[in-house]
Amino acid sequence: MTTTADPNELKGEDWAGEMGIKWLTHIDRFEGMIAPIGEALLARAGIARGERVIDLGCGGGLTSLAAAEATGPQGAVLGLDISPDLIDEARRRAEEHPNVRFLCADAATVTLEDAPYDRLISRFGSMFFADPYAAFANLHGLIKPGGRIDLAIWAAPRDNPWMMELMGVARSHIDIPSPDPRTPGPFAFADLDYVRDILAQAGFSAPDIEAYQGEQAIGGAGALPEDAADFALASMAIGRALAEAGPDVLASARDDLLGLFTRHYRDGEGVMMKNKVWLLTATA
Predict the structure, then answer these.
(1) DSSP state at residue 13
(2) CA triplet 178, 259, 170: central angle to 5 degrees?
(3) Tally: H helices and E strands in the chain
(4) Taking residues 83-94, what's their average pLDDT?
(5) Residue environment code for 92-101, b if the CB has 16+ CB neighbours within 10 A, otherwise e
(6) Least buried of 121, 160, 266, 275, by fewest C-beta within 10 Å?
(7) What pLDDT score does 4 carry?
(8) Alpha-helical segments (H) within the chain
(9) Residue 269 is part of a domain; what is its CATH number?
């Protein structure tokens, strides 16, 4: 028998608070899981020497540091994130990188004295704005006319078996109400027409969009099924909802996740599940 989850448990993540702390707690696993997507984003962006770059939703700063390698000492990178905990970690990592700095701020409203920048990149940091139309209008003002933005955004959940199969396990134990697909969260930009309209209203060009499809290691490269199950329950919204249903439900769901991840486990690689991401480029 299933239990109905509290819809509040599945609302958009509080990146300034709880979700930022969760990401930091599991940062190596999170970063390991999406590292190939970050590499694909940066390869497509083709950042040049001397450019000044904003990294939107920079998290722990790894994409910022990689961008700084591309710009060289003649350029500069500013990492923006709303989580003070993640910004502290990013600053720690960047202590020996003078061309990188980090700012804890809401990119939807931030003003920068040294704007405009040449470029903006974001690996999964652009889908959480409460008002994306206003946020992208503000971002447009931070980029030079003709300056380029490169975003990595999740395609629809139905195109991401890693998410669909996790949700399938959760829904066999609790009732999860279907959210508004445009609710701020990982899949808020799955509707590309919606994204195109946001960008157009903000003054950006019609975007060039390329699909990235591959596999990602749930819980990071090399994670065992047990590690992946514990990671999913400790760090994702479904884990919180299952925990709210009680310890018996949580334990049963963990057993089912363990079975799922065991089927997808490859020795030496980890729990490998298919994904789909949109890599999007537009100009200001």
Answers:
(1) P
(2) 15
(3) 10, 10
(4) 95
(5) ebbeeeebbe
(6) 266
(7) 35
(8) 18-25, 27-45, 62-71, 84-93, 132-142, 161-171, 192-202, 225-235, 237-244, 247-263
(9) 3.40.50.150
Tell me how far apart the alpha carbons of residues 14 and 107 are, in angstroms, rounded to a whole number: 15
- Is this prediction's pTM over 0.70? yes
Q: What is the pLDDT of residues 163-222, one digit of tens each?
A: 999 999 999 999 988 878 899 999 999 999 999 999 999 999 999 999 999 999 999 999
Q: Are 33 and 218 in contact (CB under 8 A)?
A: yes
The burial class, CB within 10 Å (0-12 / 13-18 / 19+), for 138 is middle
Number of domains in the chain: 1
Mean per-residue pLDDT of the chain: 92
Q: Residue holding tokens 């990149």?
A: 121
Residues 67 and 45: their CA atoms lie apart, in Å, by: 10
Cα separation values, 131 from 1, 126, 202, 264, Å:
38, 11, 12, 37
Confidence of residue 118 (pLDDT cuts 50, 70, 90): very high
Main-chain dihedrals φ then ψ at residue 73, nearest 5 degrees = -65, -20
Domain ranges, residue 71: 3-283
The CA R_g of the chain, rounded to the nearest whole Å, is 19
End-to-end CA distance of the chain: 52
Which SS3 state, helix, strand or coil, does residue 81 take? strand
Report the distance separating Cα 256 and Cα 260, nearest Å. 6
